Every structure is written in structure tokens, then in C-alpha cells.
Amino acid sequence: MRRWVAPVLFILLLAEIAAAVSIVLAQPGGFGSLASFDWGPERSQAIPARVLELNGQPASINLKNSSGNIQVSTNPGLTGVQVSATKIVHSNDASAFDRVRFDVTQSGGSIQIEGGSNQPSIGLSNARVDIQVVLPPALLTSFTATTGSGDVDVRGLQNGKALLNINTGSGDISGDTLQFSQAVLHTGSGNIRTSNYNGGINAETGSGNIDMQGSNELNQVRFKTSSGNITVNAQLNDPAGGSFDTGSGNIRLHMANATAPGFNINVGSGDIRVNLPGVVFNRQDKHNVQTNGSPVVQMHTGSGNVEIN
Question: Are strands 173-187 and 163-168 parallel, antiparallel or unpaired?
């Protein structure tokens, strides 16, 4: 009979553990609320808009959002920066929204915006804050946005003296009708899509695509992606020539220049097609094409094709 003692004791131990866990889960604010926070129904809570007055001062904005989308637009009639947000949780717990942070601070023209979970490591993986910012474009000097897994969308913001810096972990970056002195766009695995952009640009993505449509006038150009495609319609005004680099994607450039710059194109195993009026080839073989002109645009792809027209 002794052979049954150990299994019985083990079953009793499991029963006691299960009972203890049930008690903890039932406690208000305990692990049960965290579990329901992750798996409950989606609910949202709107944070009313507030305007941070600038009193004519130039505005520098730094936005950090651990998880959530960011939307940026403009209103020339504003005298300050308008900020609003929406908290989104998955929970039946009434206190769930309190565990999602949204803070806005201002010191003169310097504005800090932060959103995210107060407990990112336990039970809040499905919570996020979607943030909306409306700017007076003439007063902007710089806008920096960082988000872990959300998308960033910027529209209508035109200030040729301002700087734009966007960094996402896995979200997409998109923009339309923009003008900046310099835009630095980086995403780990998302896509970068813009249209009608004027200014310097440095766009890099780990595994996504880079796509610029519409009418674009670009200077200080740098495009890089590890495995995505690069598709650009633009007039290139970069005095240094600029660069296009992809590991395994294709490069397609549609030129709007009256006079094309020179190109130095290198591919590992893809094809090269250059169809430009009056182009003079200094070198033309399967893996390397060099055309006459200045400045020189550098292009490289490991296994993709390059097409310029």
C-alpha cells in the first residue's frame, strides 16, 4: 500500500497550490486583475485635448510612447501645441486605466509627452496609448517621436528649418505633405511610406520597405533597408550624391531632375537597368554600372534589381 502514498501526497499538494492561486487571483488589484487586464474586452478612455501655450516661443517636442500609435498634424491658427490621447486596455478591472500612463509636461517651449504602461513587465502587454498632437508649424524647431510597437503618422507639417526624428521598434512610419531641414526616420521591422516631401532625409528600416511617392525634392539623401525594397519618385538635390542600400530588396528610382546626377551601382546577383535621356556609361557590366555626372549617387543591393528611369 505504501506505493500509493507518494502519488496521493503529490495530488494533495497540487490541490493546495491551486487553491492558493485562486485566492490570490481573486484579490482586488492582485494577479487576477492583471490577467483580466490582458484578456478582457477592449475598452477605451479618451483623454480630453489640452493646449500648451507657447506665447510666441519656438517649440521643441519630445514624445515617448512605449506602446501605441502617434498622429501628428498641423493647424496654423493655433498659438500652442494641442495634445490629446486615448487609453486602450483589455480588462474588466475598473482600475486598468490607472495603470496606463499619460503625462505631459512643459517648460517654456520645451514639451515632454510620455505614454505607456506603469507595469510593462507583468500583465499589460495589450495596453496602449494612442496620442494625437496638433502643431502650429511656424513655431516648431524639432519634433522627436519614439514608440515601441505603434505606428507614427505625420501630415501637413511644413517648416524648412525644423528637424524631425522618428524611431519605432516594429511600427510603420508614414507622412504626407512635409517639409523639414532634415528628417531621420528609423524602424526596426516596419515600413516607411511618405509622399510630397521636401528636405533632407535619412530613412532606415530593418526588414520593411521604403516608399516615397508623389512629388519629392530631396537633399542629404540616405536610404537603407536590410531586406526590403526601396522605391523613390524624386528630384535629387543632394550635393554629396546620397546613397541607396538594401541587402536583398529591389531599388527603383524615378527621376524628376532636368539633369541626372552620376550613379555608381553595385549588385550581387540582380539586374541593372538605367533608362535616362542622354546618359553616358563610364562602366557597364553585370554587377557594376557607372554613369557620367556629378554628384555621384551610390546604389547597392545584394540580390535585388536596380531600375532607374
Answer: parallel
